[in-house]
Every structure is written in structure tokens, then in C-alpha cells.
Write a structure and sequence with these properties.
Catalyzes the removal of elemental sulfur and selenium atoms from L-cysteine, L-cystine, L-selenocysteine, and L-selenocystine to produce L-alanine. With 409 residues, the chain is of the alpha/beta class. The protein has two domains: 8-30 and 300-407, Aspartate Aminotransferase, domain 1; 43-297, Type I PLP-dependent aspartate aminotransferase-like (Major domain) (Aspartate Aminotransferase, domain 2, 3-Layer(aba) Sandwich). It has 14 helices and 17 strands. It has helices at residues 8-13, 40-53, 63-83, 97-112, 131-140, 160-163, 186-195, 215-218, 243-247, 283-299, 301-320, 347-356, 369-374, 391-407, and strands at 21-22, 25-26, 28-29, 91-94, 118-122, 143-147, 168-174, 200-203, 222-226, 237-241, 259-262, 267-269, 325-328, 337-342, 359-360, 362-364, 380-384. The strands form five sheets. Strands 4-10-9-8-7-5-6 form a seven-stranded mixed beta sheet, sandwiched between helices. It has a four-stranded antiparallel beta sheet with strand order 13-14-17-16, with helices on one face. The longest helix is centred in the first third of the chain and has 21 residues, at 63-83. The structure holds 4'-deoxy-4'-aminopyridoxal-5'-phosphate (PMP). Residues 96-98, 126, 128-129, 174, 178, 203, 205-206, 226, 228, 367 line the site of 4'-deoxy-4'-aminopyridoxal-5'-phosphate.
Length: 409
Amino acid sequence: MSTSGLDVARVRADFPILHQEVRGRPLVYLDSAASGQKPQAVLDAITHFYAHDNANVHRGVHLLSERATEAFEGAREKVRRFLNAREAKEIVFVRGTTEAINLVAQTFGRKHVGPGDEVLITELEHHANIVPWQMLCEQQGARLKYVPVDAHGDLVLDGLEALLTPRTRILAVTHVSNALGTVVPVKELVRRAHAKGVPVLVDGAQAVTHFPVDVQALDCDFYAFSGHKLFGPMGIGVLYGKKELLEAMPPYQGGGDMILSVTMEKTVYNRIPHRFEAGTPDVAGAVGLGAAIDYLEALGREAIAAHDQALLAYAEGALGSVPGVRRLGHGQERSGVVSFVMQDIHPHDIGTILDREGVAIRTGHHCAQPLMKCFGVAATARASLALYNTREDVDALVRGLHKVREVFA
Ligand code: PMP
């Protein structure tokens, strides 16, 4: 039992993948920011769906289709509760954060962003929250602007009002930086953007895994996250959107399920959220995501948050004890990841040597090349923490880093 009240030994027992050796060493998985592992409950829910309920949704009159539809819509209700959205129709199932942001850029964006308009993002963003806006701006003749980041990894918010001009049509911002761990004060950003009439999209890919998120309290207009990072399946994700906004948005993709009626001349589009879910959805993915949410809620999201914070503090301290290690990201509030460089050793070499010790971390630009440029590095090594990680995992990382030093001595 950790000090947070989370019984991590019991949690670990729920994740079969963790109990294996890699390269002859016990696996130490410190790459959950890239993709989280799945508890047995999620694997069972997916298997159960395919073994008992599999059929297409919203279409058949037969019992299996009814059960599949119930499972799918039941998962939507679980996501609604998880984010504290007002209504289940505000939850759109997509492939992941990337697709959620592309959907908003190509529907809301194409409708509201015109020549000479501006889209505001930040220097902290993952490519998933940069490229769709660059594409939109190119298509529409609009301008992409960035809220700058300071040397600690915090956004510089002094100049925010000046960046929010009468031409700004949307602000898109990450909740937690995947590269530095900075927690962005999104509630404050939403308040300040709304004061200027600007809607806000929040990229929550790295936030929902670590602490409770309440979209009504944040008052954000859109919120996106990926199932696979939340210990659910790959290929499923969520776009939350305020009902009034979603209802006024044109469809994303055309096809089955997003229509009410089709004639040879014209289509009447379906209501939300189905208008944005063309074609057969990943029903098993949604069911698995629902199971992941049940799992996290049963453990207690506050307990998970406390564990993650305590372990992050431990990891930051432990890495600080390794000579030559320089941590990047000293933002006021941080979550989930420790990003670092080590003298002039290439991060890929660090990752490769650690891998031989059974320690899995991520190295590279973390799909945040503009941010790396701000910090004057091409890449970092990044260890990321989750509810099943322990101090022993961090100690194994530190031992591995001492090996790295020996190799390069
Ligand atoms: N935003 C952030 C902050 C992320 O960390 C990631 C995944 N690394 C994404 C967006 C993209 O998520 P996905 O690949 O699941 O669509």
C-alpha cells in the first residue's frame, strides 16, 4: 500500500503484461504516456463483447444488435459520467485524440475560420494539436498563432489578451504537456478566452489518466482524449463538445449511421452524436474503454492522482541524484512525465541501454518538435508514470542511468 491509499501491488496484479521478462530482466514499463497497459477487466470486457454480444449497432432489430447497441451507448454514458458532461449526446466516439482534433478543425473550423482569421494554439502542443490547425489555416487562408512557453515549461500568459484578437476563432491548448509534464491552468485560459468570445478546445490526452477532469467545471467547449492512454483499447477515443456547438457543426465524414434519410439528391443528417460517427464504430473499443473507466473509478480517481503525484516527486528527486542528468520541465504544476537529457549522450542511446536492462522509456521529440526547438534540444529521454508504477521501477531506471554513464565514461 502506498501513502496515497492506492494498493499498487494489487493494481499490478490486474495488469498481466507487466509480469514478464524482457531481455532477461523483469519488465519496468515507464512509457505509459505513449500508451497505457490494460487491466484484465478491459481484456475481459472486449472478449466478452466478441464472444457474446457482437453485432452491428443502431441497425438490427435482432437481439444481438440490441445488446451491442446497449453496450455501445452504455459506454457513452460511462464517458459522460467520467467527464461530468451534461448529456451523453455531447460524447462523440472517435479513433483517438488526433481524430477528435481533426474533426473539430474540419467541421467547426471550416465553418467558422475564414480568410484573415486566427487560430491560437501554444508552443507546448503535441503535433496532433498543431498540424490539423496548420492544415485548416492553409485551407482557409487563416493565421496560426502561438502562446509562448517560458524556460520552465509554463505558458507565458501575460500577453494572452493581446493574442486573443477580434479575429481569433478558437484557442486549442493541451491540458498536460506530453513532453514536459506541465499542467496548464486551462480553467483560467477558458475564462479569459470566453471573456473575448473565443471557444476553447482542450487536448486531454495526458490529463485524464492522472487526475479527475470535469468539463462543466472547466467550461471548455471541446475536450479530447484517447482510450489507449487511459488503460483502454487502441483505436477508440472521445471528443466531448458542448451540445449547442456540436448541433451547429456540419458533419465530418459521410456514410451510414450519420444520416436520417438519403435520397439521390439530398441527405438529411442525423442528430448528434451520431452525425459525427459515420460507418460502423469500434464497438468493442468503446466497451473496453467503458471497462477501463469502471476500473479507474473503482480504484478511486483521487487515490490514483495522489499516487501519481507522490511517485512523480520521487522520480524527479531520484533523477536529480544522477550526475549529468538535466531535467527539462520545471513548470509550476507537473504531472506524469519526467523529461531529461544527459550530457551529450544521445537520448536514443540512453533508451537503448535502458531497454537492455528491461526498462522501457520513450526517447525522441515526443511529437512536439516546436517545443523541443524552444528548449534548444532535438530530443529528450522521457520516463512516464502510471498507477501501476512503483518506487522500485524508478530505482531500476536510476540504476540503468548509472549504467549509461559507465558506458559513456
Ligand atoms: N496529444 C497529446 C498531449 C498526446 O500525448 C498524444 C499522444 N502522444 C496525442 C495528442 C495524440 O494521441 P493519439 O495518438 O492517441 O491520437
